[in-house]
Design goal:
With 657 residues, the chain is α+β, with helices and mostly antiparallel strands. The chain is 38% helix and 16% strand. The protein has 19 helices and 22 strands. A hairpin with a 6-residue loop joins strand 7 and strand 8.
Length: 657
């Protein structure tokens, strides 16, 4: 993109076109340069079919795009003319390629300044202390001190500005996939009001885009907003469309509802997302499973069923890379839910309650693992509305294959999957440690310490909570913390997923338990039942939890909590199977015995010795949560939506009968 080097064309070749004996191949693109003039636009052509299949054993196939590519180049591009735009062929203005996202610049400025000012403050304090010593020794005056500090401040500001400039310069990244610079908006799909005359011809340079972005940070009336988005931004640019999308999504819904122009703009931006939308039917072959879940005998092939774990089968139905989607609700009973979809490759059998979606072009168009991740991210939103029925809630495969999803360029799909799987490795590693490590009861027995073995009700009061009706929306619009059972997971609770109103607390007689209350999960067929947590905030709880409020003159809350964690298996084994649902109850919780040192100081010493182990676990939990959040952010960015935390309701097997 030099001043006197013209990047005339960029031709993207299929992944694996040049393949080694091992079956691996680099991504290759052809760049055509011309001397003597600067780049004002570049022609991009994406070849997905060179006339042969991909892989080590390449076979001739129909649909060779090389002929069209060469024809367009010689008839148009070679003579400085832009070819007609198609899905695989279009031109990109040079300014779009050279423009850095102003949001990235803003972040760099903020973070660089904060980082360097913190370091500068330490330097300033040291310099100030040295100057004070000189003043005391009468080697400098107060005026000298103020002058030196002023000079130091100026030098620091220059350093900050230089560092910001360096970091911004490093942040520029030029993609060989020019499709990344072009938005997928299609105005022909909308009935536009006369006042919405979008300007797709205006080419904004980097400074103009940043100026427009800054202007959007101010308060505007709706006509001003419409003017900025319609007349100054070019929504043909992926970056400018994304800036407009982010801005509109943060506007008050009441303002958008009142003004049709804003509503139309929001719908247009929403429809475009970042990438073209395609359906499962357009991109995949699909087939329903054949084998019954229960009656199929065991065998040598993986057998994909609706449950999380695979079974086995004596025969296989597929030998491919596929996404397997259940056709029935995960819970039934009139409720449409979808707990999971599956990814499976190789030879495998499929239960007749699922169907397999197999990408038509898994090496050039739709990466199978990308299909899995992008559908799994919003599986309930995409598939649950298609489910019908009362007792047996299900959807038809013919409806499910019409579900649409965003389709980035193939190379970007692989990059996205690589990022996700890196974070998944962190999640799985943390889970492995968290699921297999626990405190031991022997950790609580020390030499020379006098113990008693009282039941919990001898040194604590025990209570529970309730779940307000979800039919009353007002109940869940308040500031009172409310803990769900699945938040009780051998952890300290400093925030809750949901809050309750004062009215909910009053109507359901909920008690707000104090800080240092120990919570214990009383329901759950998975690992939930018997897990405990320590409240670091006042909170009410559901009826599926028990609350243990310690008399702190008799016992140290954290000591008791650590012991309950160590005795998890023993506590879990004391369940009561009333109404056919194994669970704990308050009577069982009250009768749990705790080896309690008579001396509170001894309890504090044991807590201090065990604290570092717990801190390691907390660090792993935070690492796991951060990795899960990154995965959510990656996929939300592809969908062009904000990351939304789901309502964490009690799962079916945790509810009281």
């Amino acid at each position: 993109m030099g001043r006197f080097i013209f990047l005339r064309s960029l031709i993207s070749l299929p992944q694996g076109l040049f393949v080694s004996k091992s079956g691996q191949g680099p991504k290759t693109s052809v760049l055509i340069f011309e001397k003597g003039r600067k780049t004002d636009w570049t022609w991009f052509y994406k070849i997905t079919n060179d006339g042969y299949t991909m892989g080590t054993n390449r076979k001739e196939q129909k649909g060779n795009q090389l002929v069209e590519c060469l024809t367009l180049y010689h008839e148009y591009v070679k003579h400085g003319k832009q070819p007609p735009e198609t899905k695989n062929s279009f031109c990109i203005p040079a300014e779009w390629i050279k423009t850095l996202d102003p949001r990235v610049k803003e972040k760099i400025r903020t973070e660089t300044r904060a980082d360097m000012e913190a370091k500068g403050q330490m330097e300033r304090e040291k310099k100030e202390a040295d100057l004070d010593k000189k003043i005391k020794a009468k080697k400098a005056t107060e005026a000298d001190k103020q002058m030196e500090l002023k000079t130091f401040g100026q030098i620091l500001e220059n350093r900050i500005q230089n560092e910001i400039a360096k970091r911004i310069d490093k942040a520029y990244s030029y993609s060989f996939n020019l499709a990344n610079y072009k938005s997928s908006l299609n105005l022909d799909l909308f009935d536009l009001p006369d006042e919405l005359d979008f300007n797709f011809n205006k080419i904004n340079d980097s400074n103009e885009v940043e100026k427009i972005y800054k202007s959007l940070q101010k308060n505007h009336t709706h006509p001003e907003i419409t003017k900025i988005i319609v007349q100054t931004l070019n929504l043909g640019s992926a970056l400018e469309a994304d800036i407009a999308r982010e801005y509109i999504s943060n506007l008050d819904n009441d303002l958008i509802t009142k003004h049709n122009e804003l509503h139309v703009i929001k719908e247009i931006l929403k429809s475009g997302a970042k990438y073209p939308m395609v359906s499962i039917k357009e991109t995949c072959s699909h087939e329903k499973g054949k084998l019954p879940t229960q009656a199929t005998p065991e065998g040598n092939f993986p057998f994909v069923v609706t449950a999380k774990d695979r079974k086995s089968a004596p025969e296989y139905q597929f030998d491919d890379k596929a996404v397997c989607i259940p056709l029935i609700s995960s819970t039934g009973h009139g409720s449409a839910t979808l707990k999971r979809i599956h990814y499976q490759e190789g030879k495998f059998a499929l239960a007749n309650l699922l169907f397999a979606a197999i990408p038509n072009n898994p090496e050039t168009e739709l990466y199978p693992k990308f299909l899995y991740h992008i559908l799994d991210a919003r599986r309930e939103e995409l598939f649950c509305p298609l489910m019908k029925g009362t007792a047996n809630v299900a959807m038809k495969m013919d409806d499910a294959v019409n579900v649409r999803f965003p389709l980035p360029d193939f190379d970007l799909q692989m990059q996205i999957v690589a990022q996700i799987e890196k974070q998944k490795a962190i999640v799985e590693g943390a889970e492995k440690v968290l699921n297999n490590w626990q405190l031991l009861e022997s950790d609580f027995v020390g030499e020379g310490v006098n113990y008693s073995n009282p039941t919990i009700d001898a040194f604590a009061s025990v209570g529970t909570g309730s779940t307000p009706s979800r039919e009353v929306a007002e109940y869940f619009k308040g500031e009172n913390n409310w803990v769900l059972t699945n938040e009780v997971a051998m952890n300290e609770i400093s925030e809750t997923a949901e809050k309750l109103s004062d009215r909910a607390i009053q109507d359901y007689g909920l008690k707000i338990y104090p800080v240092n209350t120990i919570l214990i999960a009383m329901y759950g067929q998975g690992k939930t039942r018997g897990q405990s947590a320590l409240l670091k905030i006042p909170a009410s709880i559901t009826q599926n939890c028990g609350a243990i409020v310690i008399d702190e003159e008799k016992a140290v809350p954290k000591y008791v909590w650590f012991y309950l964690m160590s005795a998890y298996d023993k506590i879990r084994g004391q369940d009561y199977s009333g109404a056919g649902v194994p669970h704990l109850n308050l009577s069982i919780v009250k009768q749990i015995r705790v080896p309690l040192p008579d001396d509170l100081d001894a309890q504090f010493r044991i807590v201090s010795e065990l604290e570092y182990k717990f801190q390691l676990l907390e660090g792993l939990r935070k690492m796991k949560a951060e990795a899960e959040k990154r995965i959510g952010n990656i996929l939300a960015d592809v969908w062009g939506v904000d990351v939304a935390e789901p309502i964490r309701e009690e799962v079916t097997d945790e509810k009281e009968s």
